[in-house]
Specification:
By secondary structure, the chain is an alpha/beta fold. Helices cover about 40% and strands about 15% of the residues. The chain has a single domain, classed as 3-Layer(aba) Sandwich (Rossmann fold). It contains eight helices and seven strands. The structure holds NADP nicotinamide-adenine-dinucleotide phosphate.
């Protein structure tokens, strides 16, 4: 399945982890069309086939590389990131890979199932963030996007493991962004909104618009831009005001896990007083 990237290429290189279906597949196609080199990480052969077909439509295949990755395995994640040639600057990484288990009350959920979701969605994100940062810090540049949504900011009955993993991805994103604040490595989380993918149940798929990918893909592309100043934010592709230019100039702490408490209000009051 592996295809190595040629170090002779000079377009900005973005890794899309979990790009064999759904949002990751759409995003990879858009990035290719907009002049990025894309290395797509897929778990299954099915995903590899899907991305190759997508990449072949009117786009030079040499800009697209596909390789196997299991984000729940440290060895596999390291092997995947090692495909980036040493001399090549890594522009961005988007971590789409996640699983959603069959919804069930938490008291009927086995530990094994809970661990599987956390290992993929949360620990997988950690492993990719670490591997990305280690390869970006020397260049003192990088753009990283994690995927949240689905219960990070509100309760979802029967989705306890998924919702917990996605809330934790946001806090992880905030922590990592802060630790990397002096490296021009910006790390933000996106809540993409309901999309008609395998992850959504049949009813949600039917309810989701066929244009549902447009907003998250456009938002993620913005978050990959070189001029980006914000970091450590959770941005909803659907509900937040990101299409407005003013949004990108703000550094207010609103777009975080959104807990409004006295400490946060004090900080805001201080900013207002300045
Ligand atoms: N769909 C929605 O309504 C919705 C809403 C909010 C947030 N999100 C988030 O958006 C992101 C993209 O999801 P999607 O809707 O596009 O669903 P999707 O089509 O199921 O995409 C998830 C991808 O993750 C990959 N993956 C799963 N486990 C993996 C592992 N251990 N290692 C590597 N790759 C793995 C899958 O690969 P295989 O196909 O090979 O298994 C699949 O390509 C996810 O983070 C999801 O939580 C989705």
């Amino acid at each position: 399945m592996d295809e190595m990237l040629s170090s002779a290429q000079h377009r900005p290189l973005v890794l899309v982890v979990g790009g064999g279906s759904g949002l990751g597949l759409r995003l990879s196609r858009t990035l290719l069309a907009h002049g990025y080199d894309v290395l797509v990480g897929v778990r299954s052969q099915e995903g590899a086939d899907a991305i190759r077909i997508a990449g072949g439509i009117g786009m030079g295949q040499r800009r697209l590389s596909v390789s196997q990755i299991d984000v729940a395995s440290e060895t596999s994640v390291e092997r995947f990131f090692d495909l980036v040639p040493g001399a090549r600057q890594l522009h961005g990484v988007v971590i789409c890979a996640a699983i959603a288990p069959t919804p069930r009350p938490f008291w009927e959920t086995s530990l094994a199932e809970w661990e599987r979701v956390i290992a993929t969605n949360l620990m997988g994100t950690f492993l990719c963030l670490r591997a990305a940062a280690q390869r970006m810090m020397d260049a003192r540049f990088g753009r990283i996007v994690t995927l949240s949504g689905g219960g990070a900011t509100s309760v979802r009955d029967a989705w306890s493991s998924y919702a917990t993993s996605k809330a934790a991805v946001v806090r992880l994103t905030e922590c990592v962004a802060h630790e990397l604040r002096n490296y021009d490595i910006k790390v933000n989380a996106v809540a993409p909104g309901l999309m008609p993918t395998r992850m959504a149940d049949a009813a949600s798929r039917a309810a989701a618009s066929s244009r549902a990918f447009d907003a998250p893909v456009a938002l993620i592309e913005k978050l990959l831009s070189e001029q980006l100043s914000i970091t450590g934010r959770l941005i909803s592709a659907v509900h937040d005001d990101w299409p407005c230019d003013e949004f990108w100039a703000t550094s207010e702490p609103w777009y975080t896990l959104r807990r409004v408490d006295e400490h946060l209000l004090d900080e805001l009051q201080k900013e207002c007083d300045q």
